Amino acid sequence: METIEGTVFYRERMMxxxxxxxxxxxQDISRADAMARxxxxxxxxxxxxxxxxxxxxxxxxxxxxxxxxxxxxxxSLGEQLMFTSNEYIDPFQGNPVEVLVQRVAExxxxxxxxxxxxxxxxxxxxxxxxxxxxxxxxxxxxxxxxALQAGGFSGCNRYTGGYSRDGVAExxxxxAFKPMAGTLMACEQGAELERxxxxxxxxxxxxxLAGDSLSLLxxxxxxxxxxxx
Length: 229
Fold this sequence. Notes:
The chain is mainly beta. 10% of the residues lie in helices and 44% in strands.
């Protein structure tokens, strides 16, 4: 086994509440159209203020020189994300590695609150306007931030599945959908739209919000846009 050693720190003049957890992950971020793959992770409940030292052990056989790797650090209190690293950190730059985390809890909570409780109607897919699905119903997307579940109508069937806000996004706020489950109706209208839509959800890595418009991204590219109903 080999090790990566370093420290996690933040610049805000504040003390963390009791019970917070500092986590550092070694991630494979080679694929822009997929969630980062975690190679190794370490976590601790810190005492006192930053910097917080860490040591990650990893198997060098799991590292492919053709791939791209990064360190990601977070500070969380239960399910509430308080700080995260936002910049690319090369894990193999040499020890010790300094990882700056920035406070993100309030913006993330505000944006997820905007997403939740609204019906988002699909407007474009891969840059092209979309038609309605079966029964002339629009494809839609809804979020339940407490349960970390998303769902809606995909063009022929109803669908539902989990999502994650973990990871580092090239642009926007990190978001990835887990495999979706759906009803099993057969439709002449909307079947191809459904196939393309669900395939797109599997590639999403981030989202951005602008007023009543929601964009889903795969890497830096917008792959779908929605408007709030």
